[in-house]
Amino acid sequence: MGCGHKDDKASLASSQIASFGHQPHQPPSTPASKEVWKKGGRMFSILLAVHLALLACTLVSSGAFEKIAVHDYDVFFLLTVMMLIVIVWIIFYLVSTSRCPDAILCKDSHAGPIWLRGGLILFAIFSLVMDVFKIGYYSSFYSCLSAIKIIYPIVQAIFVVIQTYFLWISAKDCVHVHLNVTRCGLMLTLTTNLAVWMSAVTDESVHKAHSKLKKNVTEEIFRWLLKVGMRSSSPEECNCNSQICQVFKNGYFWLYPFNIEYSLFASAMVYVMWKNVGRFIDHQSHHIHRLKFRLFRRTFFVGIILGLIILVSGLGVLILYEVQVNSSTESSKKSQALTMYYIFNIVCLGLMSLVCIGGSVIYRFDKRDMDRHKNPTRTLDVALLMGAALGQYAISYYSIVAIVASTPRDAISALNLTYALLMIAQHTFQNIFIIEGLHRQPPKEDHKHDSHQKDLYGLTFVNINAVSLRVPDSGSTLAPSTAAEAIHPSDLVRSLTAQKKMNWRRKFLREISMFLLLSNIILWIMPAFGARPQFDNDTELNFYGDSMWPAIVDICLPFGIFYRMHAVASLLEVYIMS
Questions:
Q1: Which of 139, 237, 367, 460 is most buried by a 10 A CB count?
Q2: Do 208 and 300 lie in a common domain?
Q3: pLDDT of 547-576, one tens digit each?
Q4: Backbone angles phi, psi at 445, to 5 degrees
Q5: Which domain holds residue 504?
Q6: Is 229 a member of any domain?
Q7: CA-CA distance, 460 to 462, in Å (whole number)?
């Protein structure tokens, strides 16, 4: 566990840094042969992650069905073992890096920003509450359940606590000891989070499918379908009759979206750490921008007010949708709820599309340089935005084909078609706006003529010709240094005009970012907490069938939900950098 067990690359890096001690900002060069092994070490860790992910995916998907001889406690056993191994590795990592002074030679300032780690802690808290509810729920059946069902949430709670602490203090690390072990450990951590995510998504989908099925059929038919179809999401031979048991059961299913987002956030942060293993950062080109988060400064509050209106309206639509669709069997109320849902989303998506187009136009006139430095965090953000959007693209295109090919067409079908088209457009325009914002350099403060600018900006209502009284002419007998710093009134006018235009552009970009941020929050909340018209609209179900369409939605919708939350984090970064 000490520093003496470094691999060849770490030893070479340490010797190079020692030899270049008089040039602390110059990154050491790595020979080509060592770079080849670096790629080999990465490939080995990737292969390990792929095999573990395929094994976990096979067990999780098989455990969702009754006919397959794989039980849910088999899945829990695999996930428990994986989490225990990750916990041991995290402890090893923290101890080994703390004992070795040369373990972390530099840090990536772009990795693990404070808002991303803050979001991770928020989701971790809700995940712990979910684990408490799970423990309380399964403890009600300890006499007729396998012990692994009670052990699993306990281990998961410990795993969430240790991993959150690990990512909070180590997200920016560029490790230079035990390189291959660290790569494999990080890939194992990433795979474990993805496996927990797959298990949560599957469990939630099975629970919602059974809830819909149980509402539409009698109790006898429902029990018969469970015998020939999917496994029940509750213990098969145990009855949950007490009030506290029902509270625990409903509580942990309502908290599943937070646990799902926690696993994906942790996976993204772990991937950036994996990319930074063995990385040397050139401090001459890797600038650290200390940006201040000023929510109520340099803003007109238009974006915040409109975003809050959309957010509050969306919450009202969500409540009415849940009451009229999930709690009522009348078809008229179901049609009203679908119409209300589609109209709200059409208005929201239309506004977001127009705002994104306006923001992209403003970027065309932005004078800031493009940031072309190597940034694994930004690369991952762009890849996740583009990849997660494919889930919603797939659902929208399936809906478009079903609506166009189906007859007859009613008002709900027309609203559904408009909703699907706007969903595609909004994702496209928003990705363009976010990617442009992430690749812009933060605004730079010009201190060259700071004293002149401070005096000049105070003359808001003064005639600009009066400024010439403070500027010495060419025949002045001032010192050469003072004369060199003197500027002409025309330069001051141009500086004022350019600065004013830049401030207007920045204010508009901040308003746009805040409006999109709040709108994406409500568009994440609605599907994550039950408003899923894909299961309530009969057009797609009748066209694709009761088996194909739910499978498409169950596979693609989690990516669409994750897209919204990741867009919120990216828009917050764009807001701060504007």
A1: 139
A2: no
A3: 788 888 888 888 888 899 889 988 988 888
A4: -85, 125
A5: 294-443+497-577
A6: no
A7: 6
